[in-house]
Design brief:
- By secondary structure, this protein is mainly beta.
- The protein has one domain: glutathione-dependent formaldehyde- activating enzyme (gfa) (Alpha-Beta Complex), CATH 3.90.1590.
- The protein is built from 2 helices and 11 strands.
- β1 and β2 form a beta hairpin.
- 35% of the residues are buried.
Length: 156
């Protein structure tokens, strides 16, 4: 279990840094095609926090935002291309931000985590053996609407 309640992170080039004041919740490893393409990886790992607990320092104004669906925006560094955050402006968790966990500089070990959209995953990636896997959507109602908005076109 991780006792840290404050975290620091940055993009690859360091132009964008951020601070999280409080615990990171709702840790997911998403295997959908949008997250794979956004990260250039077999799956993307995110943790969520209330937006009021995230402070971003972008002195060079390097952050760019891409709307991947009508209510979902993905933020990345325009200098190095690092995927940083995504947010769903609609639904119950419109005030939360999901942070790409690979950008954390402070060590982080989730208490709980799960794999989602594994049916969309790559054939050469073995099914998850850790955490909890869900084929099409979160069974956690608190995350379901946000996940579906971030991954349009995926059926439950």
């Amino acid at each position: 279990m991780n006792s840290t309640s404050a975290y620091h992170g940055s993009c690859l080039c360091g132009a964008v840094t951020f601070h999280i004041d409080g615990p990171i919740k709702a840790v997911t490893h998403c295997h959908c095609s949008q997250c794979r393409k956004a990260h250039g990886a077999a799956f993307a790992s995110y943790g969520s926090v209330p937006g009021t607990r995230l402070t971003v320092c972008d002195a060079d104004q390097a952050i760019r935002v891409f709307k991947s669906s009508p209510s979902v925006s993905r933020s990345f560094c325009s200098n190095c291309g690092a995927n940083l955050f995504w947010r769903d402006a609609a639904g119950t968790f419109a005030d939360w931000v999901s942070i790409a966990l690979g950008t954390l500089d402070t060590p982080f070990e989730p208490v709980r985590h799960k794999h989602v959209h594994v049916q969309s995953g790559l054939s050469w990636v073995d099914a998850p053996t850790i955490g909890q896997a869900h084929k099409a959507h979160h069974t956690d109602v608190s995350l379901q609407a946000s996940t579906q908005a971030a991954h349009p076109g995926l059926s439950a």
